[in-house]
């Protein structure tokens, strides 16, 4: 393990701490990694939904990233909610300049169903941002939006993965099956290799911030120098435990528990 692994998240805020940069930094900390955060949007949201969004001007995101990278280059970074094309451009330039492992959680809508990014950003994400990433972690809805393929089961997941790897220029993709029927199975595709990890579905409404947390754990593990497959397996164990032991905060879809996973 690196002596001081550093992971960076570039994402929005959730003032109730369930999703976005707060969830990410809790996950980084819990995995023994020093966390940094550059904020893309401030949201007014809670476990019941998103009440308002304020997008940070792209120039100010650029300043945050300059402050970080001119001082210390993180070992890995992730992004979550990136509402505008202008912010995506800034992130793309940073990743190209510093060439660090970069995981995209292609956040589009919140668990509550509220839209978090502009529709035109999806095209830029697909055509320009994805190719600079090491990995992307779409849920089923996001994978459908990006690939234009309907995903009903495992065979469709494989077809979509092929598009990510062969047409969109990704080295690897993790398609999360949290929204499919049956067990919660996630799939890592790297070239011709496929690793599927499934856990029994937990009957709960407390899944706010699961996608954020999952990709943050992957990023933390990559920052330590772990492989993509090792990082994926750790993230799956972490999120399962975090959902199982959710603290039951709020009146809606509550957050997960960052204290519960004790594994290596
Ligand atoms: N009810 C559940 N029981 C167990 N695991 C779940 C459940 N819901 C989601 N997960 C897992 O949480 C992670 C986030 O997945 P998903 O809900 O698909 O993404 P998102 O939060 O981006 O919508 C995945 O590892 C998924 O398998
Ligand atoms: C700032 C921010 N980023 C991401 C999400 C999505 O998280 P989830 O889909 O798990 O609710 C969110 N609700 N808010």
From TrEMBL:
<feature type="domain" description="Pyridoxamine kinase/Phosphomethylpyrimidine kinase">
    <location>
        <begin position="14"/>
        <end position="257"/>
    </location>
</feature>
<comment type="pathway">
    <text>Cofactor biosynthesis; thiamine diphosphate biosynthesis; 4-amino-2-methyl-5-diphosphomethylpyrimidine from 5-amino-1-(5-phospho-D-ribosyl)imidazole: step 3/3.</text>
</comment>
<dbReference type="GO" id="GO:0008972">
    <property type="term" value="F:phosphomethylpyrimidine kinase activity"/>
</dbReference>
<dbReference type="GO" id="GO:0009228">
    <property type="term" value="P:thiamine biosynthetic process"/>
</dbReference>
<dbReference type="InterPro" id="IPR004399">
    <property type="entry name" value="HMP/HMP-P_kinase_dom"/>
</dbReference>
<keyword id="KW-0808">Transferase</keyword>
<comment type="similarity">
    <text>Belongs to the ThiD family.</text>
</comment>
<protein>
    <recommendedName>
        <fullName>Hydroxymethylpyrimidine/phosphomethylpyrimidine kinase</fullName>
        <ecNumber>2.7.1.49</ecNumber>
        <ecNumber>2.7.4.7</ecNumber>
    </recommendedName>
</protein>
<keyword id="KW-0418">Kinase</keyword>
<dbReference type="InterPro" id="IPR013749">
    <property type="entry name" value="PM/HMP-P_kinase-1"/>
</dbReference>
<comment type="pathway">
    <text>Cofactor biosynthesis; thiamine diphosphate biosynthesis; 4-amino-2-methyl-5-diphosphomethylpyrimidine from 5-amino-1-(5-phospho-D-ribosyl)imidazole: step 2/3.</text>
</comment>
<keyword id="KW-0784">Thiamine biosynthesis</keyword>
<dbReference type="Pfam" id="PF08543">
    <property type="entry name" value="Phos_pyr_kin"/>
</dbReference>
<dbReference type="GO" id="GO:0008902">
    <property type="term" value="F:hydroxymethylpyrimidine kinase activity"/>
</dbReference>
<dbReference type="GO" id="GO:0005524">
    <property type="term" value="F:ATP binding"/>
</dbReference>
<dbReference type="InterPro" id="IPR029056">
    <property type="entry name" value="Ribokinase-like"/>
</dbReference>
<keyword id="KW-0547">Nucleotide-binding</keyword>
<keyword id="KW-0067">ATP-binding</keyword>
<dbReference type="GO" id="GO:0005829">
    <property type="term" value="C:cytosol"/>
</dbReference>
